[in-house]
Amino acid sequence: MEVSITTLTRRKNGSIGRKEEVKACETLRIGRGAENEIFLLDARVPLHLAALHDGADGLFIEATGSNDLRLNNSIVRKAHVNVGDIIGIGPYDLCIVEPTDGINIAVTLELVQPIGDDVESLLSRSNLTIAKVGLTKRSSSWLFASIVLVVFLALPLLSTNSLFTKYFNDGSLEQKSQSMVNSNESNFDVSWVSGEVMNSHKFFANDCAACHTKPFVMVEDAACTACHKEQHGHIDKIKFPAEELTSTRCATCHTDHQGPHPVRAAKQELCSDCHNNLDQKVEGMHLANVSDFGSNHPQFKPTVWQDPSKGIKKRISLDDSPIEVSNLKFPHKTHMNAKRMRNPVTGKNTQLECASCHVPDISGAYIQPVKMEEHCGDCHLLTFDAIAPKRTVSHGKPETVYRELNEFYSSLALKGGVTDKTAPKVVRRRPGTPLVKEEKKAALQWAMSKTEKSSRYLFSASQCGSCHEVIRDKNNASGYNVEPVKVAQIWQPKSVFDHGKHKDVSCAECHAADTSMKSSDVLLPKIEGCQTCHGGEAATDKIPSTCISCHGFHRDDVAIMASPTGKMVQ
Ligand code: HEC
Ligand code: HEC
Ligand code: HEC
Ligand code: HEC
Ligand code: HEC
Ligand code: HEC
Ligand code: HEC
Ligand code: HEC
Ligand code: HEC
Ligand code: HEC
Fold it and tell me: Is the C-beta atom of 463 inside 6 A of ligand 7?
């Protein structure tokens, strides 16, 4: 049979659109499934709803499964239908109409309850339109555009205290920098803010002009150095005047409006963009090129004492077997061997640990200096005479040691009662007996010769000389002197290191101290040792370490960035 299906759509203006479709079929099936002749793509319609047959006794509709149908508003499961009948299928109305020639069945189909028509139906019931408020689309566009212009442009531009007013009224940076903040009241230019500023800057966050000193110009360094007067630069501008070395803006590294916490200038390229080819930027550059800790970083060059008496230090690469001249003798290996470490007081052998001498400082990053009295004095007793075996001199300058010896022997001689048989009678007399002038002179002479003898012993290789380089020195009251001791505290001043962050790594992994026989050995780890754990910024199988993990930027030994003229001295 031939079936004509006409879909009706009602337009807003009331007219009706029609779309006719003719299909040939045995029965006219209705449902959401694609195999149906009347195929209704609507979630509210079952897959197979009903079928319309053209039987011997006329048209006949039957619902499939447990579905129901609405026939002229009464619920049925099957029924005969005639022209004019309306069958309700979910949200659709199917109406049987008079067929034209050559057509067996003709139906019209109309969606009477569209999905999501709630808003439309509400709107249709409302009688408020833009036109009713007295506005056309054109005039309302103008209105809203003007509001935007006023709030976001005119008010910020005109309000007193705003960036523009300040700039055009008194403008000059010099004036501004006299007071730290002018005002932190909100102005209309706050409407331009692009994000929260860091906590340290909140006290003037609304004073946009404190940083944005010139309209339509990127934040200038002078705005920052107006407050950060004490911030030191990175390089000496006199030594390195090239524009490409001195033109990095503060805001390149210190972006603001990124939230309450300052964004650390951690990105490697902030440093490596300049450091990767410094040799091309500076003729005769003394530093090697660096671009990444994992793949392109030079060997460490600790700063090692070469001549402490003349104050000479030198940076020497760990690849060039540096030798340290500290003027202090100390064999680590011997002291780590308990069999040789007999404490002369207790008579017991002691197993020294690294921590017996090396104690972290308060920050935990570096190690406190080794001190003679604290770390050596228990075993290395500064005794000087068998007649007073427990008596020691204090550890100090040779002239002090000499004076102490002299005072000790003088008071002994004047007191008397010394048992030493080689001593003159006056010194061996019964203690307390008074002395005549001549006797006193003789006693003090003895004291002086004992002082000389004991100091020869003390300053010899057995005592002071076991640890120190002792020299003869006529200008010193003792006749001796001790070469200055310089044990480096900071070996690699161009970087920072933190022992605290490596407290679970054994000392021996970085310092081959327990095999070192001479203090001239430099016991520092090479870069390859660090690279087993630390990689460059992009490392995935190592700790990603960027330049500022180990280096600072602002250097206290370089001039401050601000200058009286407001020009950069970076
Ligand atoms: C502490 C200094 C400081 C203050 C105060 C400040 N800004 Fe900024 N602002 C910056 C810096 C730095 C940048 C980065 C610009 C650059 O690279 O030159 C920036 C950038 C911007 C940008 C560009 C978009 C962006 O995020 O890079 C806008 C817009 C802006 N600021 C608006 C404001 C407004 C509005 C105020 C006042 C309410 C304000 N700023 C106050 C420092 C400041
Ligand atoms: C009105 C004065 C003022 C201006 C202008 C200013 N700062 Fe600051 N800034 C401060 C004060 C105060 C602090 C907190 C104390 C300190 O570290 O000196 C601070 C802190 C900082 C810090 C450290 C933040 C922290 O919490 O560790 C950085 C980085 C900084 N400012 C960079 C800048 C930069 C870059 C500019 C220019 C865009 C700038 N400042 C402009 C006053 C100012
Ligand atoms: C090449 C990047 C770079 C440039 C350019 C730069 N800084 Fe820094 N700044 C740093 C780094 C790195 C730190 C160390 C703090 C950190 O670890 O985040 C720092 C720290 C600071 C601090 C915090 C206090 C301190 O000394 O640790 C202030 C304030 C600061 N810089 C101000 C400035 C100012 C002002 C300028 C411009 C005149 C400027 N900086 C230029 C990288 C830079
Ligand atoms: C625009 C170029 C430039 C940028 C950017 C730059 N540096 Fe430098 N850096 C230099 C120059 C030039 C020297 C040599 C300075 C000198 O010898 O006094 C130097 C020296 C150094 C030194 C040796 C310092 C010393 O005490 O002798 C270190 C470490 C260093 N930079 C690390 C960094 C780090 C980390 C950054 C990024 C936060 C950085 N640099 C950004 C140019 C730059
Ligand atoms: C009895 C004290 C003592 C003990 C124990 C000791 N040290 Fe030392 N250490 C010193 C003295 C003193 C120096 C300075 C000598 C010099 O000029 O190098 C020193 C220097 C060092 C240095 C500086 C680098 C160098 O080349 O001089 C390192 C690193 C070091 N010791 C590591 C260790 C480690 C690791 C241990 C444990 C295995 C250890 N020390 C045990 C006394 C000690
Ligand atoms: C636990 C006791 C003990 C401590 C603490 C100690 N030493 Fe020793 N030291 C000895 C003994 C014992 C010897 C002799 C070892 C040997 O030759 O068998 C010795 C030998 C030395 C020698 C070699 C002397 C020579 O003539 O060969 C030097 C140098 C030395 N110590 C310096 C130091 C310094 C510096 C300190 C402190 C940082 C120190 N010692 C701490 C017990 C100690
Ligand atoms: C067991 C080794 C040892 C002996 C023995 C020793 N010293 Fe020292 N001396 C040190 C150490 C370690 C230092 C560096 C740390 C300190 O000042 O305590 C030092 C430092 C000094 C200094 C300071 C040097 C400077 O440039 O700062 C003088 C002076 C000195 N000793 C004199 C003497 C005299 C004099 C004697 C003998 C009476 C003596 N010492 C015996 C280990 C020793
Ligand atoms: C991850 C490697 C590493 C480990 C682990 C390590 N150190 Fe160091 N140590 C260093 C480096 C790097 C330096 C040089 C730091 C500087 O002065 O620039 C250093 C320096 C020292 C110095 C010279 C003084 C100073 O503070 O610079 C002593 C002493 C020292 N270490 C002792 C120890 C002792 C003791 C241990 C074990 C508790 C230890 N270290 C563990 C790497 C390490
Ligand atoms: C894991 C720590 C670490 C990292 C990460 C690191 N460095 Fe170093 N860097 C050092 C040490 C340690 C030295 C030796 C310092 C000294 O000699 O005083 C050094 C030395 C340098 C030197 C001096 C070079 C020379 O000729 O001797 C420069 C420049 C330098 N680093 C720049 C950088 C730059 C740029 C980055 C980032 C790409 C970086 N470093 C990453 C630890 C590090
Ligand atoms: C056995 C592995 C290991 C070795 C070897 C090692 N480190 Fe580390 N290092 C670490 C770990 C783990 C941390 C902690 C990382 C963290 O806190 O994010 C660290 C942290 C650091 C930090 C502090 C970084 C920061 O952002 O606070 C520095 C600086 C550093 N190491 C330098 C070195 C140097 C220089 C060497 C070689 C002398 C070295 N490390 C060798 C494991 C190692």
Answer: yes
